[in-house]
Design brief:
mainly alpha
């Protein structure tokens, strides 16, 4: 159970980082769009 939990949290953190990067790009695109 512990190993599965650690693996799941690593995968979740990876997706959170990817989503955060996409969100930052989207915010910049909207903010800098004339």
């Amino acid at each position: 159970m512990c190993k599965i939990n650690i693996l799941n949290s690593k995968i979740t953190n990876k997706y959170i980082y990817i989503f955060a990067i996409f969100a930052i790009f989207a915010i910049f695109a909207i903010y800098l769009h004339p």
